[in-house]
Amino acid sequence: MVSTSGSVSSDRLREAREYLGFHLEDVAQATGWPQARIAALEDGTSTRITGAELRKLSRLYRRPVTWLQGETTFTPDAGFLQKLEDLTDGDREAVLSFAEWLQGAGPPGPPDTRR
């Protein structure tokens, strides 16, 4: 069973926010949290997060909760690895990042500011 509270990966929070093109202000407005709270989670000053907060960020960032907690959620099979063989390391990272994003939901858009 996936833990829905505990700690969160500060690097992954920042990565998800930046990947979607969100600014701290966007996240603050969408979550109703102070920017200082979001910045503290992203810089590692605070890594404790409630289940409700984690689920809110998971929906906003379109990423699985487990990914936000730092767990690996994508394990390629042999056929996928075969197709990746000729790609550069950078291209492989981009494919992995995109596949993980796809697991979270649909296309990027502005944060939902409704609370």
Poorly predicted residue ranges: none
- Mean pLDDT over all positions: 81
CATH homologous superfamily descriptor: lambda repressor-like DNA-binding domains
Reported for the largest beta sheet, the result is: 2 strands, antiparallel
Q: So, CATH architecture?
A: Orthogonal Bundle
What is the radius of gyration computed over CA atoms, rounded to a whole number of angstroms?
Answer: 15 Å
Enumerate the strands of the largest sheet in spatial order, edge to edge or round the barrel.
1-2
- What fraction strand? under 5%
How many domains would you count in the coordinates? 1
Number of distinct helices = 7
Distance between the termini: 28 Å
Quantity of strands, as a count: 2
- Bin the helical content: 55-70%
Report the order of strands and helices.
EHHHEHHHH
Determine the structural class based on helices, strands and strand pairing: mainly alpha
Overall outline? elongated
CATH topology: 434 Repressor (Amino-terminal Domain)
CATH class: Mainly Alpha
